Amino acid sequence: MNAERQLVVVARVLLPAGLDRLRERFEVRVGGLEAGWEDVLANAAGASALVADPSMPVNSELLDACGEQLRVVANFAVGYDNVDLEACKERGVTVTNTPDVLTEATAELAMALTLAAARRMSDAERDLRAGRWGGWDPAAYRGIEVRGSTVGVVGLGRIGARYAELAHGLGATIVYAGRSERPKAESKLGAERLSLPALLEAAAVVSIHAPATPETRSMIGAAELELIGPEGVLVNTSRGPLVDSEAVASALESGALGAAGLDVYENEPDVPTSLLEAPRCVLLPHIGSATIAARDGMASAVADNVIAVLEGEEPPSRVV
Ligand code: DGY
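A: This is the predicted complex of the input protein with (2R)-2,3-dihydroxypropanoic acid.
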């Protein structure tokens, strides 16, 4: 390594919108999408900056593999549940994320999943492609309309708030649950804050936008799905561990839950077979932020954060 140039290790990949800027300033080593854990550990040696993503556990083992010169873990995501913040703090390592740039993309995807699940699009398309469509049937694939429904937003942060605006624009009544009051959403959208059980009971659509923490783990299980009910729709674009997938699959099978739209899973990229086989269930492969603008914005935010820390400045989006 050139003594003048610090090493940035990209554990897996970073898009050119960020990578090219890093390459102009630093030595950059990229692991690639196929990098296994042993490759990641081997590549990490000597890193001053580590670029991670939601699929990469940034734990003590990886931090130690980087070495004592490590100064920043730049997560290529707004969520940072994959990063052991305490272990980073102990080593004096800054952690950054990529908020804002993916708000619109993720909120729109949550609304797309809402509409797709509410209108049984997955079953309908699957039947059509399999040659099972026997013609127009007034009783088939009946779902619910967002207009006139109550939409419950769990976690009214940036993405939850934008999703609430979209639902309000379609004519829904908005209720929300979360740790803090959101007076702006209350006055702008007429949103009402409820406890989680009250929200689940009141809402025809429940969309999860809370971060993954020990407190939110399995916050939606069998009892909560019962409250959402046989006509209700559950949407999750946040993180898999918040929702008990087996409980969702069995509630869909039994008819206890109306429909589900999921973009995230506990052990990605594995998706439980029970979900793959469940009816009225739209499943996407973690594409909430997958627009050109959002992903380029995220890559660029990663570069901004790395450059700031390695050049001795405050990063634009520090987590710790
Ligand atoms: C995030 O940014 O946390 C998303 O899950 C990545 O799309």
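The longest strand covers residues 150-154. The two ends are 28 Å apart (CA to CA).
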